[in-house]
Amino acid sequence: MFPSKTRAVVAVFALCVLLCPWAAARDIYVNNLTGDDRYSGSQSVATPAVNGPVRTIARALQLARGGDRIILAANSEPYRESIAITGLRLSGTQRRPLVIEGNGAVLDGSLPVPPEAWEHYRHAIFRFRPTRKAYQQLFLDGKPPVRVPAPLPGRILEELDALQWCLHEGWLYFCVEEDKLPADYNLSCAVLQTGITLYQVQNVAIIDLTVQGFQQDGISVFNSATGVYLGGITARGNGRSGITVGGASSALIEECLVGNNGKAQLLTLPHSQTQVNKTWLLGNTAPGWVDQGGRVYFDGKQVHGGCEQLEPPSAPQQD
Fold first, then answer.
1. How far does Cα 314 stand from its chain's mean position?
2. Which domain holds residue 279?
3. Residue 187 in contact with residue 155, Cβ under 8 Å?
4. How far lies 80's CA from each of 100, 168, 210, 220, in Å?
5. What strands, in cross-sheet order, belong to the sheet with 187-190?
6. Exposed e or buried b for every residue in 165-184, given b needs 16+ CB within 10 A?
7. What are the backbone dihedrals phi and psi of residue 6, each rounded to the nearest 5 degrees, phi first?
8. In a domain, 315, yes or no
9. Is the same domain home to 180 and 235?
10. Residues 137, 119: contact at Cβ < 8 Å?
11. Other Cβ atoms within 10 Å of 315 Cβ, number
């Protein structure tokens, strides 16, 4: 059964569908290499009638209504944008949610670190001050390298092994290999704040998408976002958490892989409800689950207090 608030939202949406014959569900295609935000998004390839894919997910969301399906093309280039899914217009129903189908695409909030930003610290260690300092993430060739915990406040960073990094008192430190400099590497850091924010929206499904490189959270299910389904998501290398659920929101997280995030792989906040099924919360850089409130269920059983790691049998490893 729907909660009373959700029932009201669904009833309003159903009435809109009955009154508006043009409101039938449709597919909207996105391709960040061949698309154009002037297109309609109604076809996966461009046509003379400008019916091809749009370029950005943000534009697809402007065109979409609840019950539509946004289909991403998985290209070699990540989607470099931060998106928000909000409000009644994008709210679906339990039987027909708004769907973002990632097809293995990557949503990335990082940008390259300019070589001139680095300064020598000691030995083979270099450092720079990122614009966003509270939470950060370094990427090497588009993937998170090994992160070392920061020293206590007021202490200096003594050593790092080659290709390790650390965030300490507003500085990001990276250790190079012998006879190399930071300019010899493809290094990037988190710049955009949150990958996907769901806010006051109902019945949204996001599937088969990697979300990485954001300064705060990969996915934030926040403030009355209910009926959210996250399936086959990889949330890695985000500054605070891979997935956060809070503020009278509810989410089902299923068959996801969450690791390499800064403070928590999964963060739950007061007044939320989170169900976690067949999901790997890797305790490699931070606790698998940080419990700051809300009701949480692992594979149908209510649990409390957080955990260092959640790893069902035959768990895959993050690369």
1. 24
2. 4-109+192-303
3. no
4. 16, 26, 12, 17
5. 110-112, 187-190, 138-140
6. bbbbeebbbbbbeeeeebee
7. -65, -40
8. no
9. no
10. no
11. 15
Q: How many helices (H) and strands (E) does the chain have?
A: 2, 26
| pLDDT at position 142 | 85
CA atoms within 13 A on the CB side of 299: 7
% of the chain exceeding 90 in pLDDT? 82
Model pLDDT, residue 192: 95
Instruction: Look at residue 143 in the predicted model and tell me its pLDDT.
Output: 85
> Distance between CA 274 and CA 272 in Å, rounded?
7
Q: CATH number for the domain including 53?
A: 2.160.20
Residues 77, 199 within the same domain = yes
Euclidean distance between CA atoms 108 and 29, whole angstroms: 19
- Residue 269 near residue 244, CB atoms below 8 Å: yes
Residue type, 52: G
* End-to-end Cα separation, the chain, in angstroms: 40
| Mean pLDDT of all residues in 59-74 | 98
Q: What is the DSSP string of 57-98?
A: HHHHHHH--TT-EEEE---SSPB---EEEESGGG---SSS-E
User: How far is 233 from 106, CA to CA, in rounded Å?
Assistant: 10
Q: How far apart are CA 184 and CA 182, in angstroms?
A: 5
Instruction: Tell me how far CA of residue 176 lies from CA of 124, 165, 182, 192, 243, in angstroms.
Output: 6, 10, 7, 26, 31
pTM to 2 decimal places: 0.85
Spatial separation of the C-alpha atoms in residues 107 and 192, rounded to whole Å: 11
Q: What phi and psi, each to the nearest 5 degrees, are found at residue 116? A: -75, -10
The structural domain count of the chain equals: 2
